[in-house]
Write a structure and sequence with these properties.
This protein has one domain. The chain contains three helices and two strands. It has a two-stranded parallel sheet. The N and C termini lie far apart (37 Å). It is 33% helix and 16% strand. The radius of gyration is 17 Å and the shape is elongated.
Amino acid sequence: MDSSISELALLRYKRDEGFFKKAYPCSLRPQGKEIIRTWLYYTLLRGYLETGRACFKDVWVNQHIVDDKGYKMSKSKGNIIDPQNL
């Protein structure tokens, strides 16, 4: 599935008109900063082209969690903290 239609698919676009009318547009979309130019842009564009309205009213852009040295925490870097151990 093309990721640009994720909002439309989740909100049952063209499958459940009543639900879609109540849920679209969403009030808030959490978004990672690293994919703003791709996922966010194309999702907003696709939603607008399909419905004439943006998919969400507001976007909350979150940052990465960083370690004590300021580096992005990542399993592949081995610098994560297992929350089960906290």
